[in-house]
Amino acid sequence: MKILADENMPYVEQLFGDLGTIEAVNGRTLTPQQVKDADVLLVRSVTKVNQALLSLNTNLKFVGSATIGTDHIDQSYLASQGIPFTNAPGCNATAVGEFAFIAMLELAKRFDTELKGKVVGIVGAGNTGSAVAKCLEAYGVEVLLNDPLIEADDPREFVSLEALTERADVISLHVPLTRDGINKTWYLFDEQRLQNLKPDTWLLNCCRGEVIDNRALIKVKALRPDIKLVLDVWEGEPDPMLELVPLVELATPHIAGYSLEGKARGTFMLYQKLMAVLGMDADKSMTSLLPALWSQQVSLDEIPSEKALLQLSRFVYDLRDDDELFRQTLLDDCAIKARENSANNNGFDLMRKNHKHRREFSALKLVTAGQSDVDWLLNLGFSGVGR
Ligand SMILES: NC(=O)C1=CN([C@@H]2O[C@H](COP(=O)(O)OP(=O)(O)OC[C@H]3O[C@@H](n4cnc5c(N)ncnc54)[C@H](O)[C@@H]3O)[C@@H](O)[C@H]2O)C=CC1
Ligand SMILES: O=C(O)C(=O)[C@H](O)COP(=O)(O)O
């Protein structure tokens, strides 16, 4: 069996190695010729899987995307060809939730205020939106949810997007990119909605770049320096609008979901599904894939203040490093472009490819000195709070 897998998908050899030969490919530049004789195709969000890509293939038995989003997959075409498809719903939701939460703590520190006491609006209350809400609620922050498409029997309370934008001090976006229907999310935050943001709003986008009209964002931000931005996703990736980057407080190249745990879960979910399609037992385990964090426990002498909570978060994952590296990467790309007079946007993808350091809160055990009020740290996701 020939398995074609995106070179940026970790643990493929460990999980799929017994099934056949594996060829690692650049998902961004994959061609029909390369896919021609594949039996299994494993992709990430940068590969458009459609009729054109599969035009030369007559063998394909399975397509898997180790992602939550599916906007890059023509699922109707795959269904019409009888090719089983699966993505990995929820695989990196914890990573995105923690990323947004840490970004909010960073902004609070930067602007000499506290996250606690603010109202946070979450647009899209599915896996990633709920993961942010879980962190915020564990920490005691008020959350407003907007999701017009949520199941009718969902017991949570929801508000309209208008009510959310009016009340929320912080808005975090967690919707899929959709282009049709009255609830389409393409340019959900258009110029008008951006202008209507209340003073000093923090706006975070960790879902898809095109959910915000990036050109309009540049225009509005020029007139509204009070708005603070965290952007992990960009219209036109891997070529973000360069004028936008300096206007953003924390800028990263679509890595909000890139914890080692999230990536491992993504590949593992595809492994489980493929084994089911093949009628075979999935007897490998995911936990054995993950290395230990460089230091596995921290002792707390007192319940952490917000400042100390940020320090703990940075211990697990320091978002500022990715922000700094991203800005430098884009500058380097521009210098190469100017010197060689050639298009060069490799930096965005290269930084994603090399992103292998991030862990989730659960990788760190907190040891306390017997304090009673520690459940919220467990609810945040840290493991093993106790003496
Ligand atoms: N930056 C990154 O690294 C990552 C980005 N993503 C993106 O985030 C998106 C969301 O992921 P999940 O939360 O796991 O998906 P999900 O499918 O669990 O939840 C999405 C929620 O958005 C809601 N929704 C749809 N249209 C809406 C609208 N117009 N207004 C408000 N809510 C709306 C849906 O009803 C659903 O509850 C993915 O589709 C993907 O594009 C996901 C993982 C990582
Ligand atoms: O899961 C999703 O949806 C995402 O956006 C991924 O985290 C993005 O990662 P890649 O698939 O582009 O590596």
Annotate the secondary structure layout.
Blueprint: E1 2-6, H1 12-16, E2 21-25, H2 32-35, E3 40-43, H3 51-54, E4 62-65, H4 75-80, E5 85-86, H5 93-110, E6 119-123, H6 127-139, E7 142-146, H7 161-167, E8 170-173, H8 191-195, E9 202-205, H9 214-223, E10 228-231, E11 250-251, H10 260-278, E12 297-300, H11 306-316, H12 319-340, H13 346-353, E13 365-368, H14 375-380, E14 383-386
Helix pairs in contact: 5-6, 5-11, 12-13
Bound molecules: 1,4-dihydronicotinamide adenine dinucleotide and the ligand O=C(O)C(=O)[C@H](O)COP(=O)(O)O.
Ligand LXYGBJRG binds at residues 8, 44-46, 67-69, 92, 254, 257.
Which structural class matches the secondary elements?
alpha/beta
Described by the principal axes of the CA atoms, the overall outline is: globular
CATH topology of the largest domain: Rossmann fold
Ligands, ions, cofactors: 1,4-dihydronicotinamide adenine dinucleotide, the ligand O=C(O)C(=O)[C@H](O)COP(=O)(O)O
What string, H for helix and E for strand, traces the elements in order? EHEHEHEHEHEHEHEHEHEEHEHHHEHE
Question: Describe the biggest sheet?
Answer: 6 strands, parallel
Low-confidence stretches: none
Spatial strand sequence of the major β-sheet: 7-6-8-9-10-11
Report the span from N to C terminus: 51 Å
Strand content: 5-15%
> Which CATH architecture of the largest domain would you pick?
3-Layer(aba) Sandwich
What's the CATH superfamily of the largest domain, by name?
A: NAD(P)-binding Rossmann-like Domain
CATH first level of the largest domain: Alpha Beta
Number of strands: 14
User: Rg from C-alpha positions?
Assistant: 21 Å
Task: Work out the helicity level.
Answer: 25-40%
Number of helices: 14
